[in-house]
Design a protein that fits this description.
Layout (H helix, E strand, L loop, with lengths): L16 E4 L1 E2 L18 E2 L2 H9 L10 E5 L8 H14 L5 E6 L1 H5 L3 H9 L2 E9 L3 H6 L6 H13 L3 E8 L7 H15 L3 E6 L7 H7 L8 H13 L6 E4 L10 E4 L3 H14 L14
Parallel strand pairs: 1-4, 4-5, 5-6, 6-7, 7-8, 8-9
Antiparallel strand pairs: 2-3, 9-10
Helix pairs in contact: 1-2, 7-9, 9-10
């Protein structure tokens, strides 16, 4: 396989074949993200993609999952994405699922019928970076969307029968909107009811606009215990029928996970225990935190 630049994929796609169908991210303006700053966005040609797929002949029967990179592969127009999905389905006879990153804009460019057609061809999961349910925070971070559009995009994915996995970012509201961000994000997640929720913690990437704002004193990250309080408030405000929630990403100071609502009180007790003791040994040390 040929890859351009660094490749990023969700932890749950660790055993998937990574097929780079786009280069970079179609939005690429989020203040906190440095993942695709060195890449100019483009959609790879069908010929390039088919050439990469042809290189999998030897182990095609072993492939069960495929992940379509880069940052927003769902932005590919439907008339081109369908042939890609058809090629993948034909190439891998034991295929169980195709996963893809999508942002709100790219999801909303697809109708429910479009998404259902992609599901028929194997698209099983869409990963959506929600980050926050607080509109002020979304605007500050240049997410380029609204809470209402996030809700509509989530509804379309679920109505199409595709698994929806979302990420939210602790600390993204800064000190001044820490609790507002946490509460509003919990409420948004309650309304959208994703299948999976992954809570990450902001790690400041040198050279990003967020890093420059922190350096200039325009933005202040909450300390580790305030970040844990965000996690507590967020979970406290999530009321869903059944969703898997996890904060076990490498960026987090404390890992909790479980199904909501049944494991909600257990997770809250775990966070409260650490908040009450304020014992640094109960937190992940800084040198182990990573993206």
């Amino acid at each position: 396989m040929r890859y351009e630049g660094a490749i990023f994929r969700p932890p749950s796609e660790a055993e998937s074949l990574i097929l780079q169908v786009t280069i970079g991210c179609s939005h690429n303006r989020c203040k906190f993200c440095g993942s695709y700053k060195e890449k100019k966005f483009r959609v790879r040609s069908l010929d390039e993609i088919r050439e990469d797929l042809s290189r999998t002949e030897r182990y095609a029967k072993l492939i069960r999952r495929v992940f379509l990179a880069d940052g927003d592969a769902l932005v590919i127009p439907q008339k081109m994405l369908l042939p890609i999905m058809e090629e993948i389905r034909e190439k891998f006879p034991k295929l169980e699922r195709v996963g893809i990153y999508g942002n709100v804009k790219s999801i909303l460019k697809k109708s429910v019928e479009d998404l259902r057609r992609l599901k028929e061809l194997g698209l099983g999961i869409i990963y959506l970076g929600v980050e926050s349910g607080d509109q002020v925070t979304l605007d500050r971070m240049n997410k380029g969307t609204t809470v209402e559009k996030i809700e509509e995009a989530s509804r379309r994915v679920k109505e199409a029968g595709i698994t929806l996995s979302v990420t939210v970012l602790l600390g993204i509201g800064g000190e001044d909107r820490s609790l507002i961000h946490a509460e509003e994000t919990g409420k948004l997640l309650s309304r959208t009811e994703p299948d999976y929720i992954g809570a990450l913690t902001v790690i400041v990437i040198p050279g990003t606009p967020l890093a420059e704002e922190i350096k200039a004193g325009k933005f202040k990250l909450p300390d580790p215990y305030r970040l844990l309080n965000e996690l507590y408030v967020m979970i406290e405000n999530i009321n869903v029928k059944r969703t898997f929630f996890a904060s076990n990403h490498a960026s987090n100071y404390l890992a909790v996970k479980g199904y909501l609502p049944e494991d909600k009180e257990r997770m809250l007790r775990s966070i409260k225990y650490v908040l009450e003791r304020k014992d640094p040994s109960l937190l992940k040390p800084e040198y182990l935190r990573a993206l």
